[in-house]
Structures are given as structure tokens and as C-alpha cells.
Amino acid sequence: MRHTATTLAAVALLALGSTVAVAQSSGYVGPSSAPKAAAQNAYSGPSSVPLMTVKQLLDDGRDDQPARLQGRIVSHDGGERYTFEDATGRITAEIDNEDFPSSQTVNAETRVELLGEFDKGLRKSEFEVDRVTVLP
């Protein structure tokens, strides 16, 4: 009887884990893709936040500086970490599930604009994304 209770508990945990995985929808489907939740509609008009390149941001950016980057998300590095690339270089981008566009698929070939904030650290720097917009 003890074996049956243990088996039932294990099956219940597996079922719960499967339900959580299915509840997430996909936003980025490029290399090493992971399920993502759908994003809410967001403002898509003009912005006073400066458009920068990865090189400009890494060379001259200040901690907590708002910026926009245009390029491609070339890989998913686990969790909320992605590699973003433009013609000048690469930077780690932290992107929450809800920051991907809800009705568009993003993969390694999709041109996107990232709106967010530069997180400049002593050992590493990354871009904390508030919104991902697919470019035409």
C-alpha cells in the first residue's frame, strides 16, 4: 500500500509540472527556445528613449540608462537570459515572458527593437528589457 501512495504522489507531481509547462505560451522560438507567456498590448508610438548600438551602450552607457536597441535575439541562454546582436556586437538581454509581443513569433531571424535599461556591473553588463517589438 505504501508503494501505491508513493506512486500516486509522483504521478500527481508530474501532472502538476506538465500543467505548468503547458500553461506557458511561446514568444521566442529560436535556438534553445523555451516556452514563454503571451504579452499584453503596449504603447507602440514614438519614443524619446535614444536608439543606440550595442557597442555604444557597452562603451559609453551608464548604469540604469534607458535605451533602445535594434537587431536580433540570436539565442536563448536559459531562464530569462537571451543573447541580442546588432551589427556592432552582442549583449546579454534579460527578457521577462510578458515582454514578448503576444501575437507574433520571434526567432533568431526576426528583427526586433528592445526597449529597456542598461545594467552596468563591475564584471558583466546586460540589458534589462521592458518591451520587445517586431520590426517590419
UniProtKB/TrEMBL annotation:
DNA damage keyword on record: no
Q: Which Pfam families does this entry report, sorted A to Z? A: BOF (PF04076)
Give the residue ranges for region: Disordered. 27-47
Query: Span of the secretion signal?
Result: 1-23
Q: Which UniProt keywords apply?
A: Signal
- What's the protein here called? Bacterial OB-fold domain-containing protein
Organism in which the protein naturally occurs: Oxalicibacterium flavum
